[in-house]
């Protein structure tokens, strides 16, 4: 099972001192957090994509390419690549280039995003969000698997005898996760292609997450990719830890109360009861995270959101130390002990390449 962190890259005022970091500080902080993820033994660092304040990650492959040059083992991913407002040709080229630079340590998560105005900024209509996601990914899927593509669709100009360059490393496209909070059409799309499905598992109650994952699993089996429990599932999570839970709640409360995504809504206690947000001790985080398996089954990737709401970099790095020292080692052991042998690991470039070569060898016999 893979463990990692994901970020939305928000630039938010620290409510405890009134200070807002500059964009430059926040960008450098994201890099520092990614390097820390490798240092403490995590598997994945994933960045969001946004094109509006107060967010800074407008060019994920630029940042991930920089991180790739400074890491050796970390899988570089996205917590959203906007399949609706990006050109599929540019996605194909950018991530194949990153694949080569990172020696295959790359995958990505497709999503529609949650900022409505981004659609007209890039010449699209938000009312076409689902059809855009379906058509654009169909083209991207072909661009990575066919050397020459002829294409005509509804949302972009036709392609004639087009070859996307560079070609995917070793002829193996990056693995794709389809991220969705509430759209069954995206779960269906992930199942159709045999790709992964990622639910961010932050703002919604477990019953909703369970329904979305169960839909994806049923349809994955329907399309013949394996049994439902072999479908590739990823979850998000949101935590804040201190050695004892009282200190964690006291320290996190002002960030929760003043963060734009929380302010004016349920109390911290109500939100932690109704959603997977966990504010407490490392053991409480372990227990809550292990409980995810009870409603989604055995899954392959767990990402934590840890650097949002104005938390200073020093605090985030302290959180990561707790995650790497006290939480993830226990979760690895416990999840592995419960997982049946037939449930696969999360795909990597190495495993996808091995599967491709085995299929080729079998066909040659």
Question: Overview of this structure, please?
Answer:
The chain is an alpha/beta fold. The protein has a single domain, classed as TIM Barrel, CATH 3.20.20.30. Helix content is 46%, strand content 14%. The chain is built from twelve helices and 13 strands. A nine-stranded parallel beta sheet has the order 3-2-1-13-10-9-8-5-4, covered by helices on one side. Strands 6-7 form a two-stranded antiparallel sheet. α1 runs parallel beside α11, α2 packs parallel to α3 and α3 packs across α5. The longest helix has 26 residues. The radius of gyration is 20 Å and the shape is globular. The relative contact order is 0.14. The mean pLDDT is 94. GO terms for molecular function: monooxygenase activity; oxidoreductase activity, acting on paired donors, with incorporation or reduction of molecular oxygen. One of its GO terms (cellular component) is cytosol. Keywords: Monooxygenase, Oxidoreductase. This is FMN-dependent luciferase-like monooxygenase.
Task: Please render the helix and strand layout as text.
Blueprint: E1 2-7, H1 23-39, E2 44-47, H2 60-69, E3 75-78, E4 81-82, H3 88-101, E5 107-111, H4 118-121, H5 129-145, E6 149-151, E7 159-162, E8 175-179, H6 184-193, E9 196-199, H7 206-222, E10 233-235, E11 239-241, H8 245-258, H9 268-274, E12 278-280, H10 282-296, E13 301-305, H11 313-338, H12 349-364
Parallel strand pairs: 1-2, 1-13, 2-3, 4-5, 5-8, 8-9, 9-10, 10-13, 11-12
Antiparallel strand pairs: 6-7
């Amino acid at each position: 099972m893979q463990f990692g962190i994901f970020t939305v890259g928000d630039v938010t005022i620290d409510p405890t001192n009134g200070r807002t970091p500059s964009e430059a500080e926040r960008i450098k902080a994201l890099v520092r957090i990614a390097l820390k993820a490798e240092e403490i033994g995590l598997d994945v660092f994933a960045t969001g994509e946004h094109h509006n304040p107060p967010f800074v990650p407008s060019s994920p492959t630029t940042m991930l390419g920089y991180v790739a040059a400074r890491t050796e083992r970390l899988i570089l991913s996205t917590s959203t690549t906007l399949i609706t407002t990006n050109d599929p040709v540019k996605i194909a080229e950018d991530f194949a280039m990153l694949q080569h630079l990172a020696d295959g340590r790359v995958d990505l998560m497709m999503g529609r995003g949650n900022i409505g105005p981004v659609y007209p900024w890039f010449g699209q209509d938000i009312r076409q969000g689902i059809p855009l996601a379906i058509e654009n990914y169909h083209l991207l899927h072909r661009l990575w698997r066919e050397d020459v593509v002829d294409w005509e669709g509804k949302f972009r100009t036709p392609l004639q005898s087009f070859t996307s360059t560079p070609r995917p490393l070793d002829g193996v496209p990056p693995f794709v996760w389809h991220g969705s909070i509430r759209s069954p059409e995206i779960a269906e799309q992930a199942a159709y292609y045999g790709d992964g499905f990622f639910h961010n598992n932050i703002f919604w109650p477990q019953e909703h997450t369970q329904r979305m994952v169960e839909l994806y699993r049923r349809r994955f089996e329907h399309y013949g990719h394996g049994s439902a429990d072999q479908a590739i599932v990823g979850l998000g999570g949101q935590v804040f830890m201190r050695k004892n839970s009282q200190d964690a709640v006291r320290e996190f409360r002002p960030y929760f109360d003043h963060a734009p995504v929380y302010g004016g809504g349920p109390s911290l206690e109500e939100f932690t009861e109704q959603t997977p947000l966990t504010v407490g001790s490392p053991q409480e985080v372990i227990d809550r995270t292990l409980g995810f398996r009870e409603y989604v089954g055995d899954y392959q990737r767990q990402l934590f959101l840890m650097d949002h709401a104005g938390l200073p970099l020093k605090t985030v790095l302290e959180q990561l130390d707790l995650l790497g020292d006290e939480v993830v080692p226990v979760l690895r052991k416990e999840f592995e002990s419960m997982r049946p042998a037939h449930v696969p690991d999360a795909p990597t470039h190495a495993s996808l390449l091995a599967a491709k070569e085995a299929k080729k060898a079998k066909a040659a016999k």
